[in-house]
Amino acid sequence: NLETRLMIQRDDEIGVLADSINHLATELQRYRDTRQEFFANISHDLRTPITYLEGYAQVLKKGLYESEEEKDQYLGIIHEEAVRLQHLVNDLFDLAKMEEGKVSLSLEWIDLTEIADNVVQKIMLKACEKKLTLRTKIITHVSLIYGDGLRMEQVLLNLLENAVRYTEKGSITLELDQNNTYVYLAVEDTGIGIPEDEIPYIFERFYRVEKSRSRQYGGTGLGLPIAKKLVELQGGELLVSSKLGQGTRFELRFVPGYPGD
Ligand code: ADP
């Protein structure tokens, strides 16, 4: 009987081992799929602006336009596509550095009030162009945060740019305050919102909600994954809540003090 028991035990162990191997194989396949998808996305996103650049440059070179106005329009497209390409390359570079763990932060005590003020100045023009109201509710006495000022600005600007990009009418509100536990910075808009079932994916690389995928919105699909990583590297959290057709709220939370205290 000892023999039977040993055999059962061995069968169990083999079963566990087989499960682990299966699990590993699935993980490996998932990794391969994401990698493949990642490169397919990059190639597509790089190729599209290059095609536009090449096409319109040819049109101009061959003088295939009928008025100065038309020529200016084509030059405008070339400029837009070059900027898009520049953003994409910058984002890819940032992401690559982060994934290798090579992004170096200059941590110091920073005042989020100053950062919020700077970023509001930068986004004001874009909000005005779309006739959106830019509201700020900035409490001036929040605790200092141990973080990287420039990176924090990058994150906040990204959230505000998204808010402007995905809002057709209404307002964008930037709120800075703190409660007993944490300091928070929130960017709230009255824009197109995100479908509930897609919210879990928006922090994935290259993810774009289908409706907003069209080129009219621009964007790289890398902004949010970068933002989330940067916030986490500074010991914070990035949260989102959204209602389709009503608006979206992103919130950055930081517990004051040294990270890990
Ligand atoms: P993108 O460069 O395409 O904006 P992000 O990583 O910044 O990429 O965002 C991912 C996707 O999340 C966007 O394509 C968009 O569909 C959605 N999204 C982000 N911010 C907002 C927002 N404020 N309102 C509605 N949708 C948003």
UniProtKB/TrEMBL annotation:
Its main location: membrane. It is a multi-pass membrane protein. Its EC number is 2.7.13.3. One of its GO terms (molecular function) is ATP binding. It is found in: Cell membrane; Membrane raft. It comes from the Bacteria. Residues 1-33 form the HAMP domain. It catalyses: ATP + protein L-histidine = ADP + protein N-phospho-L-histidine. GO terms for cellular component: membrane raft; plasma membrane. Residues 41-258 form the Histidine kinase domain. Keywords: ATP-binding, Cell membrane, Kinase, Membrane, Nucleotide-binding, Phosphoprotein, Transferase, Transmembrane, Transmembrane helix, Two-component regulatory system. This is histidine kinase.
